[in-house]
Specification:
There is one protein chain. Helices cover about 55% and strands about 20% of the residues. The chain contains four helices and four strands. The protein has a four-stranded antiparallel sheet. It is rod-shaped.
Amino acid sequence: MVELIPKREQKPIFGQVFFLIVSVAVLGAVATAFFVFQQLVRNEGELLEVLEKRFVEDTRPLEEELAAQLQDYKKKTEILRAVLDERKNALAFFGLLEQTSHPGVVFQQFKGNVKTGIFLLTGEAQNFFVLEQQRLVWKERQEFSTILRGIHLSEGGKSSFEVEFVVKPEILDSI
């Protein structure tokens, strides 16, 4: 066929293949992002449902268990406080005993009750003269009274004894 009007020769459009590839890549990225975001929304929706169920769920048994544990800890704390207070009071007695003891006197046995303030100690002095000096020191003290018992001669010329301390309550509570 003969053409009356000649057609121009079509030139290839610059970058047509490049823009096609970029367009397909963008389309793929958008489609992928859509599915990824849809999956994230679904997962977060499930998590939200679980959290709402947990929030609505009755927590009274757990609260009661925690309250029971708290009461148990309070009891243990009170017991510990009582033991520490008793020990603190006994430490006051030992401090007083340390201040008033003669270097030649050694105590071997201790029995006592912090609540009553009565302590029974068994000891040994180097000799009767040291024991008499110790008795005079104890006699001068106003914080406590002493009663020496069971004084007898033991091995090596040492004198064994028992002493009962009756300590004033305000001394034991001073720390």
